[in-house]
Amino acid sequence: MIMGIGVDVCDVSRWQAAAARHPGMVRKVLTEAEAATPSRSQAARFAAKEALYKALGGGDGLSWHDCEVVSDGGLPRFELRGSLARRVLDLGVARVHLSLSHDAGVAVAMVVCEG
């Protein structure tokens, strides 16, 4: 059963400009491994976290670093820990699906939470 769906987009040039204006922002919302990726991938990872928060019904009390987008053989997935792992458990979410894409200067993420 689908428990939640979230979608988010991030303009890559806007992400780059914000990161240049506020250098600490990248480290605030992305893990060290995520921050080491190209800016288009950083924007996609930010969109993924926003989409996850939407799918879970909001981001209040959740930590940016408690979810990390990782790719094993090209398929993106979340590694959840701390506040996000607890939220998923409390909601009865058994599986979190993630899809990422970036093209024409825009990054998009879609998340489906399945119970």
Automatic annotation (TrEMBL):
It catalyses: apo-[ACP] + CoA = holo-[ACP] + adenosine 3',5'-bisphosphate + H(+). Residues 4-73 form the 4'-phosphopantetheinyl transferase domain. It is found in: Cytoplasm. It comes from the Bacteria. The keyword DNA-binding does not apply. GO terms for molecular function: holo-[acyl-carrier-protein] synthase activity. Its EC number is 2.7.8.7. Mg(2+) binds at D8, E50. Its cofactor is Mg(2+). InterPro entries: 4-PPantetheinyl_Trfase_dom, 4-PPantetheinyl_Trfase_dom_sf, ACPS, Ppantetheine-prot_Trfase_dom. Keywords: Cytoplasm, Fatty acid biosynthesis, Fatty acid metabolism, Lipid biosynthesis, Lipid metabolism, Magnesium, Metal-binding, Transferase. HAMAP family: AcpS (MF_00101). Belongs to the P-Pant transferase superfamily. AcpS family. Transfers the 4'-phosphopantetheine moiety from coenzyme A to a Ser of acyl-carrier-protein. This is Holo-[acyl-carrier-protein] synthase. The lineage of its organism: Bacteria, Bacillati, Actinomycetota, Actinomycetes, Propionibacteriales. The gene is acpS.
